[in-house]
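3.2 Worked example (two chains)
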Amino acid sequence: MLLLNLIKHRIQESVRAKVFSKNVAIAFVMVFLFLYFATIFIFLGFNLIDILRSVYPETPVLSSYFTVIIYAYFSEIMVRYFLMDIPAVKFQRYILHPFKRGQLVNSVLISSVFDLFYVFPLMVFIPFIYQYDFANKWIIWVFLLLLSTGNHFLALYLKKKGGSNPLIGLILLLITASVIYLDSAKILPITPTIAEFFTNGIENPWQFLAAGIYPVITYLLSYKWMVNHAYLDELSVKRKTEDKITSNLSFGKKYGKIGQLMELETRLILRNKRTKQTFLMSFFFLFYGLIFYANDAYQNQQWMLVFVAIFITSLFAMQHLQFTWSLESSYFDHILTNPISFSEYMEAKFRLIAVYCGFLTLLSMGYAFLDPKYAYQHLCAYIFAMGVLVPLFLYLSSFNKKKIDLGKSASFNFQGQSGHHYLALIPALVGPSILYWIISLLSSPLVGWLTLGFLGLIGISLRKVFYQAIGKRLEKVKYNMTIGFKEN
């Protein structure tokens, strides 16, 4: 009964969310994104046999399929850690009600299983088994569900235990990348071992059911942790501990007023769930280039690689700066009363974003091992983003009058957003690609990349002019923004 009520409350919470009732555009975007990804996964499922035969021509289809499945489930742990939110109906709300603590935790954990992470893999698996006939399909389907359920509870445990610690996210990234690299470089016989395991499993399917131990263990880990920490006072202590960690930051005093503003911005990013998760997700999207750089079909479409390079090196800047003032809406009045100009605020944000995105760009230089040209491409994309896109998104942020709750997760959270945020991404990502395409036709691809970098350098040198212009606009609309932040 308690479980059914929690599931009912979770559905009601989603349906009645203010962001969907007040903004039809967000609801439309959500439906569009679901249909878009559903179409991709279904199409992939129906064409998976041909894809596997072209990628692994010397390997049986079933063996190569199960190899890809294991890669996907390794990656799923990382994806769930970055994107999955702690169960939507927080058990803290029910602590004071007459429920047994263990019963409450059990119900919360079980209700958290119902999410879209289970739907999309089925959209690939069902069309595949419909076309490719092999024995004991049902037992393999159960095996994949058990793996996914185990990943769900493992990611939940890591997220609860580590509190979205960046180190855990980086470790998951390194483990996933290492497994893929060691297998592709044939240093460890991962693929043959997996193929043999599944081949034997088809003949003796009951060995797959041994995978049921995995979700049981991860479930018990999550259960034990939540039972031992389901106290409001302990959760508040955890919050104070996080604040104490970030309060030890003191690098800003060495660099004057701008440095102190950078320090405050760093605390805002690392202390709050939404900004911290956005930052961590930018590391996950470093692997986005593998989709394009490892595919020869895109090597003749260099204009698309401009989009990829900007996406990899500067995604965090675009996501964060769009909501520059909405993220600070809770104390926007305090900003207005401080003897600090908007230009100084924007200069501090620019320098901090330049450091963060510069670090991401440095990490992305690993693609140079695939082809040295990716090094200068990412560098040019980074410079272009800092000089052109950063002022653009700072300007667009002045149109946002919606408050954002920093305590909520960033994944599938559309608070403070509207249709123009998505429209703004189109020229920011497509515009440089079109410009590069025109210049490369008139000259050469190298000149196209250098032109983007040169435009970025011009933008960086003129940034104070841009900030003054944006500051004048903010002076005109600051009171309207204050009213908007208080209404939401």
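3.2.1 Second chain
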Amino acid sequence: MSIAWHEIRDHLMHSSSNLHFQRSFDAVRRAQAALTPFRDPAALLDGLHGTNGDPARKNLILSALVRAAQGDGPASDCALTLLLLALWPGLDAIRRRSIWRRLGTADEVASDVLARTTEAVRSLDLGRVNWIAATVLRNVERDMIRVRQRDMAREHLASGADPDEVADSGESGIGATGYARLNGAVRKLLGDDALLVIRVAIEGFSQAEVAVELGLTEAAARKRYQRAMRRLHDALEEIP
């Protein structure tokens, strides 16, 4: 029997509210100075999900959770659960995009997102990463797309189809090649704001969701999106 995506989150939230989890959280809190201000998991998640917090401070908190998650025992499991909940808006955006790209069934995508996020956290090299949330989310989504492209290539080769047609076969939204062309065209006009515009204006995700993915505050994402859309409008106006 499959478990709905929102039920997985509800289960994680319920698990994070019991006494055993609180004791594990206290152990993590004692070991990680960045977590000291938070008395319980709910306060920590409120701080991470708040729209007015300092992104650099949130990143320090996420770094502390990653260090704890890379340990062992109940404290490690506690930190991993908190990371999954902290990243949930971004993970949900990846899940929806993956379903849109037809990377698998809803259940397959949900399972893959959680498994890859867990692996990404456990193996993350904190010495080579600047922004935790953006790096983990980007790596998870990239790996899911790569695996699907590899599997599609194998299927087409086995069937005798032209491998060059795999990316545009229509089995993954607009196809990898189409997506790359779209991103390239928008990037020429908007630079680093291209992904933000594509996510919101084309794929239909909220500015808050994309802010989490890109490691921005919601206010910063909103300003960048408005500025980029004005630039895009001006560019289109110049076309004869």
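3.3 Remarks
Residues 166-172 have pLDDT under 50 and may be disordered.
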